[in-house]
Amino acid sequence: MNLNLTGHHLEITPAIREHMLSKLGKVKRHFDNVIDVNVILSVDKLVQKAEATVHVSGKNLFAEASDDNLYVAIDSLVDSLDRQVLKHKEKFEARRYDQSGKPQAAE
């Protein structure tokens, strides 16, 4: 998993980077096929905003969250991404099997 962490009007400290990596471990634990993660953290007046684009096999997932506290915004962002990744994983697994539960033949 490649992580690209960018700050807009914000300096990315090692503490923020470590917090982001530890939280993204949750997404990686649920689905191994995560290729790239692009995260933009920004500050606009008193609102801390976190945006992320996750490139998984066959699809790009996008989520954003904002809060007064950057760490809370990161937590809610990762929760949203985790839900999207789990939904993508369920659809991905459902395509591999037909109604009887047997694997589909390769075409």
List descriptors.
107 residues; alpha+beta; Double Stranded RNA Binding Domain; 4-stranded mixed sheet; 41% helix; 35% strand
Please tell me about this protein's structure.
It is built from two helices and four strands. The protein is of the alpha+beta class and 107 residues long. The chain has one domain (2-84): Double Stranded RNA Binding Domain. The chain has a four-stranded mixed beta sheet with strand order 1-2-3-4, with helices on one face. Helix 1 (14-30) links the parallel strand 1 and strand 2. The chain is elongated and about 55 Å long. It starts with a strand and ends in an 11-residue tail after the last helix.
Draw up the topology in text.
Blueprint: E1 2-8, H1 14-30, E2 34-44, E3 47-56, E4 59-67, H2 70-96
Parallel strand pairs: 1-2
Antiparallel strand pairs: 2-3, 3-4
Helix pairs in contact: 1-2
